[in-house]
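Sample intake sheet
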Amino acid sequence: MKNRLYIGGYLLVAIFVSFYVKPYAVWICLLTSLVLLVVLFRKGGSTQSLKMDMPRDHMYLNVLDSLFEHNPNAIGIFDQAGKFIRINLAAETILGYSVDELLNQPFISFVTQEQLERTSSQLEQVKSGTPVTFETAVIHKSGYRVDLNVTAVPVDLQPNSKGNILICQDITERKRGDEQVRYMAYYDDMTGLPNRRMFRDNLNERLSISKSIGQKVAVFYLDIDRFKLVNDSFGYDYGNMLLLQLAERFTRCVTDNDYLARTEGDEFAFFYTNVADSNDVIAVIAEINRVLEKPFLLEQYELHITASIGVAISSDDADDADILMKYADIALARAKEKGRNDFQIFNTDMKSVSINRLKLESELRRAIVGDEFVLYYQPQVDIETGRIVGVEALIRWDHPEKGLISPNYFIPFAEESGLIVPIGEWVLRAACKQNKAWQNQGYPMMPISVNLSMRQFFQHNLKGKIRHVLEQTGLDPQYLELEITESMTMDVDHAIQSLLELKELGVNVSIDDFGTGYSSLYYLKKFPIDKLKIDRSFVRDIMVDPNDAAIVATIIAMTHHLNLKVIAEGVETEDQLHFLHENRCNEVQGYWFSPPVSADELEKMLKTGIPNASAASVHAK
């Protein structure tokens, strides 16, 4: 009768938890089943005697045996010594051993070495009568690791014999998933290097240790110069190839006491424990530059890479990872402002620079919305006639408080921040509108030159955007000249395709600052361009540096052979003008004739001419 009460109680518990405690129903039913089995086992001394004494309960025992044997979780009953005395089929599968191989073997003998101590400690608690749940790992017969979640419950096997039941769930897949999530949280999935989060955690740990022993830590933030150009020119696959090669080379710059991470994009972070002053910083940077010296090979392309680096050294007021990383980032921004391929060590003055950058960005955004920009125009002169044959549109910022601001102050930041795109679009529209206005007023029809930024040139549907501006302003395409730099043509296929699309519109295209980039003469002849513009850095010294004179003469001769026009910018003296005339340069531009002027001032020149230009043309003849 009591056995029926036990079994009836079990069924009530099972029904109750099935409806009201669903998340734990399987575990509760399983534990209840095992407890019932043990109780019945104890009452008769053995399963066999239970069957003989209570044949009416035979069916219920078969149900419990079936639950034990076919449960998806591994279940084992152990004696006081921790040895198997009964196991189910799932336990055989998880461990890979047969029942005969497992019986009388201690469970602890299958546990992995690193989990041995912890598992033994948990099982000792069970012997003292305390149920425990813990995670451990065992070695399968085939040799691989199996992670388990174990619930261990103490039981009385006989009146004077104690043991325990272990219910084990295979969590190997879950653990692997957890490790994958952890890897994704703390490592860069492309290079395999630690990411920003792990870098910060390890830096905090290192700072704590270094502070206790009076040692300094230096954080280096490194940014690859013109990395966006690689992506834009060759595609993201090539950019990723470059990042992998960079990661491999940078690992040569760190020891076991140092640390390397990829924090984002093309930015890498290092920290060194043996760097205390500027001399140590210079030594580390020399090592980093050394691994960058050898060209990087991206299939058939060979690239030379430089980097800008910002450094912050720990101090009493900078002994926290977040602060030190922030200071290194500020120093990096400063290094990039100074022209790239440089390094800067953080100092307190840079805090104000960083604040000024934020202020500049805010003011630039306001200037775009508030239409605070104005265009100035520099005439381009025919070297034979002295007539104005074109103008270049140059932006100025009419700041409400600071007055007229040179583009050198804000254009580099605009390019870095992406604000150059809306600014460039404004310049294009304003220049086309002004040229059309001059034409309507009866002034000579001439092209107006507008510089395209790198970001604009690689914009989607550039052709459509320019066509829209021309249609809006009513300017004939032949009176718009777009200037691009040599560096924009590194991706030859993209450059040719984009230039062909622009030429289809009917606009003129010139390469600005020619001689400062890496244009291949072979590809240059394939580019659908109209004019080359010799960079002012060569023109400036043609009268004092024979090399510059030879370069300028060669560029002019080469341009004529390619049936292109050539214009020299930065002409400031009559001697320079005569040299360019003797070498058959077509057009000139510079302060010898006029600095950039307002629209009103240029209109006066269009009416009366430029005195120096007229005198020079007469003298040349």
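Comment: Residues 418 and 455 are 8 Å apart (CA to CA). The longest strand covers residues 145-158.
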